[in-house]
Amino acid sequence: MPAPVNTLKHRLQAGETLIGCWLGMAEPYLAEISATAGFDWLLIDGEHAPNDIRSMAAQLAVLDAGGASTVIRLPDDDPARIKQALDIGAQTLLIPMVESAGQAERIYRATRYPPLGFRGVGSALARASKFAAIPDYLTTADDQICVLAQVESRAGLQALDGILANDGIDGVFIGPSDLAADMGHIGRPAEPAVKEAVLDALRRIRAAGRIAGVLSMDPAYITDCRDAGANFLGVGIDVTLFAGAMRAHASKFKQST
Ligand SMILES: O=C(O)C(=O)C[C@H](O)[C@@H](O)CO
């Protein structure tokens, strides 16, 4: 019995355009609620949300049970964190702040078992192998791993061709917020210079035959990114949606009392 098929990877690589939502509440119960919304994928954010390996594992369990496609974003490119995320069962990883081809290669190798890489062997303890219930896990896991490099700085854009030249990098995600900050327009991802850099990068990523990702809650921004070729579209953030709905609801009644 082989490792689970990563349908998200294969759908994106086939060119499907799939929408998803960031999960930053760090709570399995709320993740389960989000899984009923109908997004094609849900991303458990370990970079900016208060997630740790245990909370991410708990969210993976409820999301997998519900049939949702999942992504884990780690706080950095630490090979030990990559190993832990893969061992708890993540198959699609988003790694932030990628700025060179060499860094991309190290990230790729951290996701693969020898001889392709240096991922440590711990499948006997790993949820990923269904705790060794998948006897062929070690020889079939590599093909189901999807590595998405997050490029979100001028240095990263300058290195983009080198990153895309690595066949082990399945896709590149452009981070408009951090790119805006790096370009001197912090808090303004829709600044014309920033948006054009985002759209140009997305065109280059798809021209290279890779998955192209972006995140924006602005429908017009998303449409422009989709038109530029983005097919891994983050269109929501649970925390932002929840906070906005709570504030709007309270305001509705406070005005009337
Ligand atoms: O730079 C970006 O944009 C992202 O990486 C997304 C942010 O991290 C996300 O938290 C929304 O601000």
Automatic annotation (TrEMBL):
The UniProt entry, under InterPro entries, shows: Aldolase/citrate-lyase_domain, HpcH-HpaI_aldolase, Pyrv/PenolPyrv_kinase-like_dom, Pyrv_kinase-like_dom_sf
SUPFAM superfamilies in alphabetical order: Phosphoenolpyruvate/pyruvate domain
The record's keywords, sorted A to Z, are: Lyase, Metal-binding
Source species, domain of life: Bacteria
Please name the Gene3D superfamilies in this protein's record: Phosphoenolpyruvate-binding domains
Q: One short Pfam family name for this protein?
A: HpcH_HpaI
**Residue span, HpcH/HpaI aldolase/citrate lyase domain:** 19-243
- Family the entry assigns: Belongs to the HpcH/HpaI aldolase family.
The protein here is known as: 2-keto-3-deoxy-L-rhamnonate aldolase
